[in-house]
Design a protein that fits this description.
7-stranded mixed sheet; about 30% helix; single chain; globular
């Protein structure tokens, strides 16, 4: 899908690029149909969006794509993760459901009610989650068919201070957190990321967030799909929460472009 009002967008890169920059949490838009059932008034919802949104990450991916010699493809969510979170499991496998933040959130970042606890997630999953998953699967399949491999780089950010919803926030909160998958993150991909972001004062692996996004059709089945999550601490590039981007954004874009080139 494309266009300003589409729920997600695939932005083409070079025909010979295996890289897909995935930006799932950068948007704040909530369509009126998805706003129904949300318990927060407008000011409270705006505050929640400040905390939950990975602000400016779509711009970061765009700047990196422009800077890279071989232009990567980009898959960008144009809706807030308060509509659906496309990176959660839609069923009982989802650990975050324990704090009301499965594929359809019922709690906020501060564990306050967002939707009623008995909300039926199926309408939102059917309208938004499953079409997104199918489109992302098709995008990865296209890179496999075109280049023989696919490299999914998940672009995220996270707050400097731990928020109450975080289940595993006790560990280090480095400038750059690199989330890995035991099957789909090869050592050379992780090493390239460490080198690309070396100038930011330190990286950690899987702290405070772990894992990386691979469409379920390929997860654990297709080793030619590799993946890495790049989590950027927000104070490195923006005013928290929900504020403007600063000069750090351009530095990060340069490093992300370096990573893209290293794995292209």
């Amino acid at each position: 899908m494309s266009g300003a009002t589409a729920p997600f967008e695939l932005l083409p890169g070079a025909d010979d690029s295996p890289v897909l920059l995935h930006v799932p949490h950068s948007a704040r838009r909530i369509p009126p149909a998805a706003r129904e059932g949300i318990l927060l008034d407008d000011p409270a919802l705006a505050r929640e969006l400040d905390h939950i949104t990975d602000a400016h990450t779509a711009e970061l991916a765009e700047l990196a794509a422009e800077a890279a010699t071989v232009t990567p493809w980009r898959f960008v969510n144009r809706l807030s993760r308060l509509v659906v979170d496309p990176e959660r499991f839609p069923d009982e496998r989802e650990e975050m459901a324990a704090v009301g933040m499965g594929a359809v959130y019922t709690r906020t970042t501060h564990r306050r009610p967002l939707r009623p606890d008995d909300t039926d997630p199926r309408p939102l999953l059917g309208r938004y989650f499953h079409p997104y998953a199918r489109a992302m699967t098709a995008a990865v399949a296209d890179r496999l068919a075109a280049t023989g491999r696919a490299v999914v780089i998940d672009v995220h950010s996270y707050p400097t201070a731990r928020l109450p919803y975080e289940l595993h926030g006790d560990g280090p909160r480095p400038p750059i957190c690199l989330g890995t998958d035991p099957v789909h993150t090869p050592p050379e991909l992780l090493a390239s990321a460490r080198e690309a972001f070396a100038g930011f004062g330190g990286t950690e692996v899987d702290s405070p967030f772990s894992g990386s996004y691979v469409p379920l059709e390929f997860h654990g089945r297709q080793p030619r799909v590799t993946a890495l999550m790049v989590e950027i601490r927000r104070d490195t590039y923006m005013t928290e929460p929900g504020g403007a981007a600063g000069p750090g954004l351009n530095r990060l874009a340069s490093s992300l472009a370096t990573l893209v080139e290293a794995v292209s």
